[in-house]
Specification:
The protein is an alpha+beta fold. The protein has three domains: 78 residues, Multidrug-efflux Transporter Regulator, Chain: A, Domain 2; 30 residues; 141 residues, Regulatory factor, effector binding domain (Multidrug-efflux Transporter 1 Regulator Bmrr, Chain A, Alpha-Beta Barrel), CATH 3.20.80. 37% of the residues lie in helices and 26% in strands. The chain has seven helices and twelve strands. Strands 4, 5, 6, 7, 8, 9, 10, 11 and 12 form a nine-stranded antiparallel sheet that branches. β11 and β12 form a beta hairpin. α4 packs antiparallel against α5 and α5 runs antiparallel to α7.
């Protein structure tokens, strides 16, 4: 018996035969015909039966492979026009898949963070974005062995000023837990530019910046959730940190804290 591979190249296959050879269902083949992805070589004008050429087996296998890679029908139509076109489509599909992996990784991180919470009502942190003006502050910076030691910096700051300051206060975290080199923090309070402090306290300007921020209860667990939410937002929105992370008190909301990340867009490369 002569196999199909040994048959003359001008021989055609009925749609059922072609379906068995390619693993595609008859319904799918009819659909691919309708959307101009894989048209039959011939259609009997009297019966409407579809006939496929043997060389179309290779095209069908390419369609199957490309669909498995997640390509859209329009992309497959373009890919079937030639090798150069297929390579262009595959490069575009790879970039789309990479973006999808980043998004899904972020979603997984957020899901794990939410599951780790003892109170799921803390999970719904709302990210706000704003332009923060420059501020003149007095501050004192040091390395810390624990985050709680920042209170010692505030005590030194008040001694160096001789007065409590006149505006918002907070902490610039130059290095946080998990960063290389350990904790490095700078306690600050808003002051007039003309302030003359003593000791290690210095007066400087915190530059204007685009901030992504979240308001949270001033306690370890909800604050950590706020940090996680901001990190996830930075990844999702393709932003990168631009300066020290900020924690600032909210005078109008006692017991609450604003955590803010200065950011800029990731450079395309």
């Amino acid at each position: 018996m002569v196999g199909l591979e040994d048959a003359p190249m001008n021989r055609t296959l009925r749609i059922g035969q072609f379906a068995r050879r390619t693993g595609l269902s008859i319904r799918t083949l009819r659909f691919y015909d309708a959307v101009n992805v894989l048209r039959p070589a011939e259609v009997d004008p009297r019966t409407g039966y579809r006939h496929y050429a043997l060389h179309q087996l290779a095209s069908a296998r390419r369609v199957v492979a490309l669909r498995r890679l997640g390509l859209e029908l329009e992309e497959i139509r373009q890919a079937l026009t030639g090798e150069a076109a297929e390579r262009e489509v595959l490069v575009s599909a790879r970039a789309r898949l990479e973006r999808s992996i980043v998004r899904q990784s972020t979603q997984l991180t957020e899901l794990e963070s939410r599951l780790a919470l003892s109170d799921l009502s803390l999970a719904d942190s709302r990210i706000e974005v704003r332009r923060e003006p420059a501020r003149w502050v007095a501050g004192v910076r040091d390395r810390l062995s624990a985050a709680s030691e920042v209170e010692l910096l505030f005590a030194e700051l008040r001694r160096g000023l001789g007065w409590p300051g006149g505006g918002r206060e907070g902490v610039l975290w130059h290095r946080c837990a998990g960063d290389h080199g350990g904790l490095s923090a700078e306690a600050f309070v808003e002051v007039p530019r003309s302030t003359r402090p003593r000791g290690r306290v210095s007066v400087f300007e915190i530059p204007a910046a685009e901030l992504a921020s979240v308001h949270t209860v001033d306690d370890d667990e909800p604050a950590e959730l706020g940090y996680r939410a901001l990190r996830a937002w930075m990844v999702r929105e393709r932003q990168t940190l631009q300066g020290a992370k900020r924690e600032m008190t909210l005078p109008a909301e006692p017991g609450w804290l604003e955590i803010a990340f200065p950011f800029r867009a990731v450079a395309e490369g």
